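Posting here for the record, re: N-carbamoyl-L-aspartate.
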Amino acid sequence: MNIIHIQELDFEYIASIMNKACEFKNNSTKKQPYNIANGYTLANVFFEPSTRTSLSFEVAMKNLGGHVITFHNDASSTKKGESILDTLKTISVYSDIIVLRHHDCDLIDQIPDIINKPIINAGNGSSEHPTQALLDLFTISQHIDIYSMRQLSILFVGDIKHSRTIHSLVYLLNSFFNSDIQYYCYPFCCDDNLMNNNNTVSSFDNIHNFDVVYSTRLQNERFDNLSHDIKTQSNLLINQSVVDKMKPGSILMHPLPRNHEIDPEVDNDPKCVYFSQIENGIYVRMAIIHSMIEQCSAKCPF
Ligand code: NCD
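Prediction output follows.
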């Protein structure tokens, strides 16, 4: 099974990942070694920069007892003109699971036709980031009882158009939960597919209404010409006075990296959970790798 588009995951699968991640999290203090991935190799193949996604996949695989190989584009034969498909075919010979991040939104859809190893989409351009959405959902569920609450209200702040993390999480929340989703967006960053007059706000005045506030940075790399105006107008600073207005029990999330949109002075406020998102990424990715290995070994018992 691949994880390419969030739309391809059903509720049963998502619930199984949430439960398994919870189990891994509860056992994490025991520092218990797992041998679930013994003999398996995960390939981290990142054509765009990454800190959390690549490292957490590596830690997750190693926690399960598996190996990790890391592809370095700048030192690879792509520099001699090798095509990306040949590169991926080659990597698939050395590995059992491929984690791919690439700026081309459409490339990921071609991969299952050319390699027969499970593939995980770790970000395809500005389009999707399904495993981040799963870890975001897990983080929300650790703080808010989303399974029994009547409606979850969430405010997405920032670059709505280009944030793949937002696109994937919005899909999950709209499909499986009763969610009231609102957007507060940077100039030139509106997403016409998601936003309309009824779900768009232009200040933090009503921030006390939301259970979750999810901030993102301006995705500079998606602009051909990034004017000084866009940059300076894209600082919807969340500082202590904004966090203080959030409702008790609500949470402030960010997929990170941040630029200037959240003042580090609020980092230790209990509402700020972006560092928990980082940690939860390990458990959710352990759960994803575990499910893939279970399916591999079911198919090929010897
Ligand atoms: C995000 C990404 O790469 O899409 N980061 C992440 O994976 N944790 C967000 C971003 O780059 O702004």
